[in-house]
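Reminder to self: tokens first, then the designed residues, so the page reads top to bottom the way the pipeline ran.
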């Protein structure tokens, strides 16, 4: 049975050694919504630090636990076919749709990372991780304020990859034509000198017709012809040494072989040695025959020698005349490559103004195609900007921000000016935000507080989750600055996001934790460290106690436990309605 590839990636296991307060821990992650809770300083954020390291984040010797030489973190991920190909192309191994990423950091700051068992780099892993995990904390939420990121989010929501691809193709071709026109104009300014130089190169190469690696081949044959007598004498002496009439080594070996073969069948160990000797003698006889055939074809050829010397002189003359650099062989191969396009460059120059006029005509046609594809892309962005604005604003209302509004603004530059075109199009995308109906929409970085920015980011992820290739979302402090009903709604939206992707949340709010499908609690031992026994999954009564602790700070409080039970019952009821 062929195992079906997962459609999205997910984090399955995380192993941590000597990271911050964590001595040793191995955490298993499941699908759905997982929350991590625990007392302040218990090491919850160290889990995020470990993931950042695994995904190619910046390392720091300060992360290493005091008194230890190195930290080691390892993550096991379930991945789909596209990421499997990326891992395998990098030399890594994917087994049963799973890949392991390891990272170690010494207390001297030296870092190593491996992908699927193959040595890799933080940059390479980081590039792959963009489709593996999305980590959000208040500090990283600032990324959402960047215009380039906002444009990517709009394009992802719109799903118009064909329009983006068409524009990118037209833009690249437009740039290439502009470069060719500029280069030809530069060359035409020194046309006569350039034409003379290229004509000489083309003429000389047509006459000589040099081939790749030819100089080395010539030198080898020249060396052979120079040493014909020495080779002849040496080979005859060597053959006589092993096969002379008076004292033949081959005859002696043959006799030895015959005597030993009479002993075959007496001892299996000896039989194996006899086989080895027989094979060696056969190989000696075979190679001796080849040497004899080489000797029979060895003869002086003065005419051939003179031809080779002349040919080598011609090739070296080309290198001396046109080559660059101190390494002769590199200069020769580079010269061959440059000579390949000398004819086309010569045609451009000889065509002169007519060729330039033709390139400019092509450039004008391509610019018109670029304008057309840019218009289509801008029009699509304008349509979906309104839809994305509406969808995110609706999510914000569900996150207890009823008066908040997010506007996706698309400003298109003048399409007649070539300088206005960039790799992403003519458009400048901005997310404008206001927290109340009468407020003036401002750029997200200026208009939203840290807590508001976290909720905007959550709203964006919920809206985009269905189309996103990312399989795992991790949130830290997404509930910062909220409480009460708003916190309940944050938990609800996280649970909704978890219907399409794996979601892991570090939280201190009971209203968020009650929505979890899986609840992990991190505690510290009396020594202040965290070991495997300090990270447990809680269910039933133990989970109710943890929710009570989050509510009141006292897990044994009867009233807090009753409140916790009410929250859990309420969430269970709403979750059932969401599924229904």
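Designed residues (580 positions):
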């Amino acid at each position: 049975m062929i195992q079906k590839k997962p459609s999205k990636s997910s984090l399955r296991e995380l192993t941590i050694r000597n990271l911050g307060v964590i001595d040793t821990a191995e955490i298993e992650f499941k699908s759905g919504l997982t929350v991590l809770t625990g007392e302040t300083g218990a090491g919850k954020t160290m889990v995020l630090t470990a993931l950042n390291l695994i995904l190619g984040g910046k390392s720091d010797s300060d992360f290493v636990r005091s008194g230890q030489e190195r930290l080691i973190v390892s993550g096991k991920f379930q991945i789909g076919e596209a990421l499997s190909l990326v891992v395998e192309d990098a030399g890594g191994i994917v087994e049963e749709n799973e890949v392991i990423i390891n990272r170690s950091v010494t207390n001297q700051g030296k870092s190593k990372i491996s992908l699927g068992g193959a040595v890799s780099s933080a940059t390479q892993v980081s590039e792959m991780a963009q489709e593996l995990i999305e980590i959000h904390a208040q500090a990283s939420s600032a990324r959402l304020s960047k215009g380039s990121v906002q444009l990517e989010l709009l394009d992802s929501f719109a799903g118009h990859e064909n329009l983006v691809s068409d524009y990118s193709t037209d833009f690249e071709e437009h740039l290439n034509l502009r470069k060719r026109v500029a280069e030809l104009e530069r060359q035409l300014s020194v046309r006569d000198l350039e034409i003379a130089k290229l004509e000489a190169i083309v003429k000389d190469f047509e006459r000589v017709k040099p081939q790749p690696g030819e100089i080395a081949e010539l030198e080898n044959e020249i060396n052979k012809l120079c040493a014909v007598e020495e080779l002849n004498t040496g080979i005859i002496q060597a053959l006589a040494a092993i096969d002379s009439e008076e004292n033949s080594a081959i005859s002696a070996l043959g006799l030895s072989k015959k005597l030993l073969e009479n002993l075959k069948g007496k001892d299996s160990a000896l039989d194996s040695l006899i086989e080895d000797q027989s094979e060696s003698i056969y190989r000696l006889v075979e190679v001796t025959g080849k040497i004899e055939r080489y000797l029979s074809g060895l003869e002086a050829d003065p005419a051939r020698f003179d031809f080779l010397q002349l040919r080598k002189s011609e090739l070296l003359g080309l290198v001396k005349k046109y080559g660059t650099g101190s390494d002769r062989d590199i200069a020769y191969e580079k010269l061959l490559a440059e000579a390949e396009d000398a004819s086309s460059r010569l045609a451009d120059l000889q065509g002169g103004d007519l060729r330039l006029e033709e390139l400019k005509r092509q450039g004008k046609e391509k610019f018109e195609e670029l304008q057309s594809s840019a218009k289509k892309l801008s029009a699509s962005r304008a349509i979906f900007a309104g839809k994305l604005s509406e969808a995110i604003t609706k999510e914000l209302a569900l996150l207890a921000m009823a008066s908040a509004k997010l506007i996706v603004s698309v400003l298109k530059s003048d399409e007649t000016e070539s300088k206005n075109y960039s790799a992403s199009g003519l458009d400048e995308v901005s997310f404008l935000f206001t927290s109340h109906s009468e407020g003036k929409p401002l750029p997200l970085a200026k208009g939203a507080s840290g807590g508001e920015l976290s909720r905007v980011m959550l709203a964006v992820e919920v809206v985009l989750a269905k189309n996103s290739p990312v399989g795992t979302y991790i949130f830290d402090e997404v509930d910062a600055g909220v409480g009460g009903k708003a916190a309940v709604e944050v938990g609800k939206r996280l649970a909704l996001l978890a219907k399409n992707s794996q979601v892991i949340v570090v939280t201190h709010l009971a209203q968020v934790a009650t929505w979890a499908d899986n609840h992990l609690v991190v505690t510290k031992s009396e020594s202040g460290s965290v070991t495997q026994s300090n990270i447990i999954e809680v269910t039933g009564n133990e989970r109710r106690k943890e929710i009570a602790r989050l509510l009141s700070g006292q897990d044994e409080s009867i009233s807090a436990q009753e409140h916790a039970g009410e929250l859990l019952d309420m969430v269970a009821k709403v979750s059932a309605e969401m599924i229904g």
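The first strand starts at residue 10 and ends at 19.
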